[in-house]
Automatic annotation (TrEMBL):
<dbReference type="InterPro" id="IPR005158">
    <property type="entry name" value="BTAD"/>
</dbReference>
<dbReference type="Pfam" id="PF03704">
    <property type="entry name" value="BTAD"/>
</dbReference>
<dbReference type="InterPro" id="IPR036388">
    <property type="entry name" value="WH-like_DNA-bd_sf"/>
</dbReference>
<dbReference type="InterPro" id="IPR051677">
    <property type="entry name" value="AfsR-DnrI-RedD_regulator"/>
</dbReference>
<protein>
    <recommendedName>
        <fullName>Bacterial transcriptional activator domain-containing protein</fullName>
    </recommendedName>
</protein>
<dbReference type="InterPro" id="IPR011990">
    <property type="entry name" value="TPR-like_helical_dom_sf"/>
</dbReference>
<feature type="domain" description="Bacterial transcriptional activator">
    <location>
        <begin position="109"/>
        <end position="244"/>
    </location>
</feature>
Length: 252
């Protein structure tokens, strides 16, 4: 089970077509190969997750990240064992080459899809139903690894920015039911996120629901006062300033 044997197990053989694989990291970890679920042990799941989130990783760095509290030699041995085990049950998922570990060519990852959608948010996208599930889709919520916590916040921000941006775009297309659903989904995911409150208000205004916009602003103001002891930002207040008399805003 040395390095050479591990690399053969983890890499696809030349001339063999790689089956499609799908790794899910939002919520519980899940690996599917050719449409079938594959069970992995804890160490194996963590190696796969690390490569999915960080891209190609040097073996030494992967070992140090996953086993930070043990000696380098032991961490390297742990990594070799995990790679060997992944190669036994899912040989096309990871590739090991010249000291690096990377994903196989036919592997897709839900977090990578989320990132691409967030960066291409202005492109047409009718998969509104799948977006509404993102409120509760934290990155590997049951994992307490320090390195996961770093990626968890990055992914959380991507999710919320995507929900807000798509909600505003849908409102501009007069798809108001879907827009308000996504806006409220972002708000439910983080009730203290002021940009989510602004998105809800903006969607109501786009639809001409002035009373709803006023109620949303009042709810935002009360929450921020109670939880943070602050007033809504000028950007939030400006959304309704021309629609709601100053006296009403000051008493909201």
């Amino acid at each position: 089970m040395g390095d050479h044997g591990t690399e053969r197990a983890a890499q696809p053989r030349t001339g063999v077509q790689e089956p499609g694989a799908r790794v899910t990291l939002l919520g519980d970890f899940r690996l599917q190969v050719a449409g079938r679920s594959v069970e992995l042990g804890g160490s194996c799941r963590r190696v796969v997750a690390l490569v999915c989130l960080r891209g190609a990783v040097p073996r030494a760095r992967a070992a140090g990240t996953l086993w930070p509290s043990v000696a380098d030699q032991r961490a390297g041995a742990n990594l070799r064992t995990a790679l060997w085990r992944v190669g036994l049950v899912a040989p096309f998922v990871l590739r090991v080459d010249r000291g690096w570990v990377e994903l196989g060519l036919a592997v897709t990852v839900d977090v990578q899809d989320l990132t691409q959608r967030a960066l291409a948010v202005d492109e047409p996208d009718d998969e509104v139903t799948s977006l509404s599930r993102l409120a509760d889709a934290d990155l590997l919520p049951d994992w307490d690894d320090e390195w996961v916590a770093e990626d968890r916040e990055r992914v959380r921000q991507l999710r919320l920015h995507l929900l807000e941006a798509v909600a505003r775009r849908l409102a501009s297309e007069s798809r108001f039911a879907a827009a308000v659903n996504l806006a409220l989904t972002a708000l439910r995911a983080d009730p203290l996120r002021e940009s989510a409150h602004r998105t809800v208000i903006a969607v109501h205004l786009a639809e001409g629901n002035l009373a709803e916009a006023r109620r949303a602003f009042a709810a935002c103001r009360q929450l921020l006062r109670r939880e943070l002891g602050v007033e809504p930002s000028a950007a939030t207040a400006a959304l309704v300033a021309r629609l709601v008399p100053d006296r009403a805003l000051s008493s909201a």
